[in-house]
Amino acid sequence: MPSPSRRALLTASAGALLSLGLAAAPASARPAGPFGRFGSPSARLTERTLYVHPGGLGDHTTVQAAVTAASGSGWTLVLAPGTYRETVAVSPARTDMTWLGAGEDPRDVVVVYDNAAGTTRPDGGTYGTSGSATTTVQADGFTARGITFANDFLRTDLPGNPGTQAVAIKVQGDRSAFFHCRFLGHQDTLYADSMSLAAVARQFFAHCYVEGDVDFVFGRARAVFEHCHFRTLLRPDLAAAPHGFVFAPSTARGNPYGYLATRCRVTSEAPDAFYKLARPWVPSSDTTAWPSLVVRDSVLGPGIDAVAPYANMREAYPWQAQRFAEYRNTGPGAEVTVPENRPQLTPDEAESATRSTYLGDWNLTPVRA
């Protein structure tokens, strides 16, 4: 008989499958094996399910091969525990795709590569920031649960090269959701973006873990982070502060909402006050950008500089001119010591800083911890 913790896991997994719209059999009725509670190729969750196993026990041995085979809409990929060292791209045509990690923990299923912006491509030139992404998702309706997305490039891999941006995942599609996932990198870990300036890409991250150092959550998506843990890393190459910045939104001016972090926490490996909470990114491709960030009801650890939590990326676009605000945050890094350095929402303003306001009519099923 399963232990209480295992029983709770099975129950939560069954509920998660139902919330994702999958017609799955009860976990106890599915075969044991490398795909755990998600069954096996002989007992599929749906007719449009593909199983990925690095040792050849599924339909495909790589994630990209499964994505390529999943032509059209509505496919589910079940990833067996293992490390998938590859780059993966989900094209716009592969809408409503779901990836399920078949491990008991997101650490069990890892999609990782080590390209950086300054890495030389096989055909010459360099990848650039966007091209460095381990995983790129351009399709609408993408969902992932229980997976680690990583870029394990290190600055020492390209000594003296300024192209140290190394993206773990770039998400551009609308209605993109990630539950209990991990995002690992250093600079530019999680690129929450959109397909164009005019496109609104709504994205939802729940109970996720994100780590990095410089601008490690960045882009122009309309993204909500709920119950997420952001971890700032120690930088051995730097002795003085700041070591980096958690958020760097580049919200298009016409988009009323950018990033919202609610009921999250920020911790740090670095010394106290060595990190800024955010800085605005106004890219050369959109000099009219008006970065937007709200952090509310969250716990900010001592790693965040409470005196001056925001900084400029470019002097021409000061952070004070952007849409940055906080509300009811707690912790040493949230202390309001210099009020003009920490814009606060009023209670009336906070009423619209919610998941439902940001995500609109997207019928997103709430996910419990």
Give structural attributes.
mainly beta, disordered N terminus, 369 residues, Pectate Lyase C-like, ten-stranded parallel sheet
What's the helix-strand series?
A: HEHEEEEEHEEEEEEEEEEEEEEEEEEEHH
Shape: globular
Would you state the CATH class?
Mainly Beta
Mean pLDDT: 91
Q: Please tell me the total number of domains.
A: 1
The CATH H-level homologous superfamily: Single-stranded right-handed beta-helix, Pectin lyase-like
Q: What is the CATH architecture annotation?
A: 3 Solenoid
End-to-end C-alpha gap: 23 Å
Given as residue ranges, the uncertain stretches (5+ residues, pLDDT < 50) are 1-31
Give the helix level as a range of percent: under 10%
Summing up helix and strand content along with how strands pair, one would put the structural category as mainly beta
The number of distinct helices, counting runs of at least 4 residues, comes to: 5
- Rounded to an integer, what's the Rg over CA atoms? 20 Å
Strand composition percent: 25-35%
Question: What's the number of extended β-strand segments?
Answer: 25
How are the strands ordered across the major sheet? 1-2-5-8-11-14-17-20-23-25
CATH topology: Pectate Lyase C-like
Major sheet attributes: 10 strands, parallel
Describe this structure in words.
- It is built from five helices and 25 strands.
- It is mainly β and 369 residues long.
- β1 (49-52), α2 (63-69) and β2 form a beta-alpha-beta unit.
